[in-house]
Amino acid sequence: MNKTLSEPPKTHGGKRDNAGRKAQYLEKTVVMRVPASKVNAIKAWLQPRPKEDIESIQNLQKLVATSCVEIPFPLESIAAGFPSPAQDDIEQTLDLNQYLVKNPLSTFMLKVSSLSMRDAGIEIGDKIIIDKGLEAIHGDIVVALLNNEFTVKRYMCNNKNPYDFWLKAENPEFPDIYPHENDNLKVWGVVTCILKKLR
Length: 199
What we know:
The protein has two domains: 36-65 and 102-195, Umud Fragment, subunit A (Ribbon); 68-100, no CATH class. Helix content is 7%, strand content 29%. It has two helices and nine strands; from the N terminus they run αβββαββββββ. The strands form two sheets. The chain has a seven-stranded antiparallel β-sheet with strand order 1-4-5-9-6-7-8, with no helix packed on it. The longest helix is centred in the first third of the chain and has 8 residues, at 39-46. The relative contact order is 0.17.
């Protein structure tokens, strides 16, 4: 005797609403082969740059030392515990202006408004000190001008060709910046210090 079993309804396959790749550019896509060394640059170029990745020029100010700020500190280094009582009388002072500012005429401060460098310890509201007189080297955190907009990134360069460089974001939610032919990209200054208040 033949017995027909009813099949359960299919729960996968076929066309579904909102399925498939999202047409970000509203046009057809093509497959192409690219050099392996250019994959990251192409992915970064395709990733839209968030509006929050722009530092306002209004947050930039010239750093002018109008007073001397000195704090005492012991001559000897100490462990992260209690200093020795014998060190109480062995102190010298540190002028914060001299410590933080090497080139007064070319030093600026910027209040950060982006999270693109979060994993490097720079968060929204932190203040960074920038020295325009320093030449950026590989690995420096810099303030760059991209098409007349400020951005803070890590400077990555080819040691054989200093003009072959790109800017690395320290937050996976933000794209790296690779200069293109029509981009106006230049390093504006090197970040020398991060000022972060803990309370």
